[in-house]
Structure formats: C-alpha cells, structure tokens
Design a protein that fits this description.
- By secondary structure, the protein is α+β, with helices and mostly antiparallel strands.
- The protein is built from 13 helices and 23 strands.
- The strands form five sheets. Strands 3-7-8-14-11-10-9-22-23-21-20 form an eleven-stranded mixed sheet. It has a five-stranded mixed sheet with strand order 16-15-17-18-19, sandwiched between helices. Strands 4-6-5 form a three-stranded antiparallel sheet.
- The longest helix has 26 residues.
- The chain is globular and about 85 Å long.
- The two termini are 27 Å apart.
- The protein binds one RNA strand of 74 nucleotides through α1 and α9.
- Pfam families: HGTP_anticodon, ProRS-C_1, tRNA-synt_2b.
RNA sequence: GGGGCCGUCGUCUAGCUUGGUAGGAUGCCAGCCUGGGGCGCUGGUGGUCCCGGGUUCAAAUCCCGGCGGCCCCA
C-alpha cells in the first residue's frame, strides 16, 4: 500500500480505513460511517481525557437529551429554523401511523434545551447553568459528504449550552469557551485560527459566532469549533424567565458552543505522514508496541520472547497502553509498517542485542531509534512522549503559519486563495464588500481574534474605501 | 445550486470501444521456509460485476432510471 499525503483526499480516505479507525463509504447510507474498534478507542480517549475532563473542570455538567425534537419546538425560534429547515431529517410515521406532530432528528439542541430550561430556571441563584452533552446530530447535507468532515450523521457532537443573568455574563462565557477550546486543541497539538464570523455567516439565531479554524494539508480551511452568543433569542420564545436579585423578572441570556467529529479529522490530518497516522501519546490507543526479534537459536529465541513479555508487563503496570506483537507469521519489518500506519508513538525492538545491552526504542514522529537502559524505560518514555508531542505540535503550527499570507491587492488575493492559502486582507467592514469577497475571492472566515485585526491607512480591497479591519479569506471544506 | 469523472472478490485493478468462459495483484487461510524495515515457495479462500428496469438467443459490456463515491466551479 502506498500513501502520499500530498494527495490529501486519497490519503485521508485510505488512512482512515486501513488504520482501522473508521469505515466510510461502505455502509449503505450516504454520509454515515462506522467507528471501528481502534477508532472508537481513539475517539473515547479524546473525549474522556481531554474534552470531558476540561469541561468538567470548568464547571460544566453533562446531560443527555432525546434525539427527537417535535416540529413545534424546533420552529419556535424563526431565524433558527430558517437556518436549518433545508437539512432536517423528519420522522413522520410511527409504525403504520402518521404522526400528528412530525419529529425532527436534532440538527442541534438549542430548542430542546431551552424548552427544558424554562422549567428548570426560575432564579438568578441557579445561574449560570452550564450544561453539555456529547451526542449524534443529523443534517441532511446536500453537498458532497466526507468522512468525519461533512456527515449526515455527525456521530460526535459536543454541544455546550449555558444560561446567564446578563448579556455581559454570556459574553464572558463566550470568552471562557474560547479559552476552553484553546486548551482542548493545544492538548492535541492542533493549530487553530480564531475568527469572528461575519454577520451573514453566523449560527442561525446567534448574536455573534466565533469559530476555530484549522488548515488541512491541502490548504483548505476546516472549521473545528464554534462559540455562539445567543442573547435572548431562544429564551424569549421558550420563556426561560428568572427573577433577578433586584426582584425584576428577565429572560435568561444564553450561549452555545460545539465541537464535532472534525476534531478527530483534524487530529489525523495535521499530524499524519506518508506512513499513516501519527498520534499524540496522550490519546494514542496504543502508546507502545513491543516487537520481539526471533532468533535462530532456540534458547536465545525463548529468552528474547521472555524479556519482551516482561517489558510489556512492566509497562502495563506503569500505566502505559502497550501491546506485545509476538505473532510469528509476520516478519518484524512487516509489523513495523503496520504499527506505524496506526500511529503508535513508540516501538520497542527486542532481539539478541537488547538481551545484553540497552533497549531499542523507535519514535514514530521522527522515525529514529534510540538506546534506553531497561531500568530507565518508564522515565525515558515519559520524557520522549513530551518531546514527541512538542515536535508534532510545533510542526503542525509551522505548517499552518506558512499558509497564512497578507495582501492589499484584490487580484493577488484571488491568486493566493486559488493556491489554497489563507489570505488576510484589509476590509471596510461593509457587508456588500464582504459578500463580494465571498463570491469572487474566497470564503470570508472573518476577523482574526488571535491577533490585532485593526488597520490604519489601508484601503478595502474591494471598494477602495478606508479599511477598518483585517479579514481572512480561504477555500473551505 | 451548476458541471465533470467514476462504481468489477476485503483492497487496488484488467475486461466495456466491437455483447458470448469474469483475469491479475494484494489481503486472508493452511503448510513449509524465514525473521534487526513490507522475505520466499506451494496449495487454498474469496465476486449479487452498485441496484432496478429495458434491448437481445445472450449484458460487467448497449439504453433508461435510481443509489453511492470522487473532483471542479458557485
């Protein structure tokens, strides 16, 4: 099997399946795939070790809402339903009977949650209320679907929903959400831009939307997280009212923020190489593989296997996720390729040489071997895990930075977007010009929040008026 | 939303133009042989030729419809 990451589309599809992560394109429903055992483990480690841990640490509580939402609820907030109506799956029958009220497979849960919050919230003392759930959501995508990137069944949707006493509190919550997402993506070594989406590209029903975007190996931008200030847009129609300390009754202020399967898509895409996956040790389902090198001499061979087993058990006791590959119908070289495809960070080779001297540990990211004393193995692996992670993280950030460029010229901007670069250009801030850029140059990602976006003395690239801010443009998924 | 390409054992693919026995590689299984980067040999396994309909004595091949995948443009 040959892998070539420069042909990203093919690389991505092949790696997903061949590494045993996700089987896509064979299940007979468009836009729906199957998490295989190895992929499920990775997904669970990312969710449990990173996403859930950080949300729990920051005072969020996990809940679980039904997948079905009655039409009447979904339609309560008019702007919201307008944004989604074209892509909702409807359950209209139960057995042979037509349902009185059609039930939607949730495309997102703002309406369901607001409905219940109207019962739960009555006093400022209950606020803020910070809930989240990790559930599948359904969207009848009309564009081409792609595994983990554009699905009709988004199998993993982490959606947080918070309610607050005031606009300012909700605003502060959005800032917290941004910090949380920084932590999550930093822990995975996934680089990101933070962009304030333009008014015409907000979440349906939001006052503003902030997005996390990353750059995929082919230069296209992938949105990997969003944060919305919902104002009172849902609490008014759903009558989520509470009494303030000053005894006035007000509608609560909400935010919502989500991360989907794309977190895994990005993880795979930004770190992988021509041999397959490269997984950060923290989330790798298998962190270490031990491979005994068979020996002609029977006595020696037995000894090698014994030591391999001891090393494996020793690491297990120390808490490492480790596998002993003692299959004897495969040659060591064959095994190397297999485990490299699966992104196992460390490989310990144990043969004749290791019986006398030090152990051989191979690192997946740089594909180099080092010698490690047996008694120092646990400690060294810890150190190497850190170096490993820092290395792949830095490489990923370097790549993303190299794809972001600036220009003040419309034609040049077009060319750069055509070359799959993210282009930063001065903008007057008027919607008219923004839409024109959207149409003629590239998708408007919005105003950068990860750097100073104010500009002075520059002209808008479309109309020539004085520019107010920088906006980012790119090809997107 | 518009345009294009494609669908054949698990995977990659030949065959389709000109209708007539579905062939290879890889994988998988068994045995032998090997073993520090995909070893080799022998044998075996595996195909509703995406689905439905039509034309025909005969369809993987031609025609129509559908489903699914990929690419480009908006």
């Amino acid at each position: 099997m040959k892998l070539d990451k420069s042909n990203f589309s093919e690389w991505y599809d092949t790696v997903l399946r061949e590494s045993g992560l996700y089987d896509y394109g064979r299940y007979p429903v468009k836009g729906m795939g199957v998490w295989m055992p190895f992929g499920f483990k990775l997904r669970r480690l990312v969710l449990d070790n990173i996403v859930r841990r950080i949300l729990d640490e920051t005072g969020h509580e996990e809940v679980l809402f039904p997948v079905l939402i009655p039409k009447t609820l979904l339609e309560k907030e008019t702007e919201h339903i307008r944004g989604f109506e074209g892509e909702v799956y409807w359950v209209t029958k139960g057995g042979h009977e037509e349902l009185d009220i059609p039930l939607a497979l949730r495309p997102t849960s703002e309406t369901a949650i607001s409905y219940m919050e109207s019962f739960w919230i009555s006093s400022y003392k209950q606020l803020p209320m910070k809930l989240y759930q990790i559930v599948p959501v359904y969207r009848y995508e009309t564009k081409a679907t792609r595994p983990l990137i554009r699905l009709r069944e988004v199998s993993t949707f982490k959606e947080a929903h918070t309610a607050h006493e005031s606009f300012e509190d909700a605003d502060k919550q959005c800032k917290e959400a941004i910090e949380i997402y920084k932590r999550i993506y930093d822990e995975l070594g996934i680089p990101y831009m933070i962009n304030m989406r333009p008014s015409w590209d907000r979440f349906a029903g939001a006052l503003y939307t902030v997005a996390f975007d990353t750059v995929m190996p082919d230069g296209r931008v992938l949105q990997i997280g969003t944060v919305h200030h919902l104002g009172q847009n849902f609490t008014i129609p759903f009558e989520v009212r509470f009494q303030r300390k000053d005894e006035e009754v007000d509608y609560a202020w909400q935010t919502s923020y989500g991360i989907s399967d794309r977190i895994i898509a990005a993880l795979i895409a930004v770190h992988g190489d021509d041999r397959g996956l490269v997984l950060p040790p923290k989330v790798a389902p298998i962190q270490v593989v031990v491979i005994p090198i068979p020996q002609k001499d029977e006595e020696l061979d037995k000894k090698v296997r014994e030591v391999a087993k001891e090393i494996t058990e020793g690491l297990k006791e120390k808490g490492w996720r480790v596998v002993l590959d003692d299959r004897d119908d495969k040659t060591p070289g064959h095994k190397y390729y297999e485990w490299e495809l699966k992104g196992v960070p460390f490989r310990i080779e144990i043969g004749k040489r290791e019986l006398e001297g030090e152990l051989t540990v191979a690192r997946r990211d740089i594909r180099k071997r080092t010698k490690v004393k047996r008694e120092e193995l646990d400690q060294k692996l810890k150190e190497m895990s850190e170096e490993f992670f820092n290395n792949i993280k830095e490489k990923a950030w370097e790549f993303m930075r190299s794809r972001i460029v600036q220009t003040d010229d419309l034609e040049e901007a077009k060319e750069l977007v055509e070359k799959r670069m993210v282009v930063e250009v001065p903008w007057c801030g008027r919607k008219e010009c923004g839409l024109r850029m959207d149409e003629e140059v590239g998708r408007v990602l919005g105003m950068p929040l990860d750097k100073d976006a104010k500009v002075k003395g520059k002209r808008c690239i479309t109309c020539g008026r004085e520019a107010k801010v920088i906006v980012r443009l790119a090809k997107t998924y």
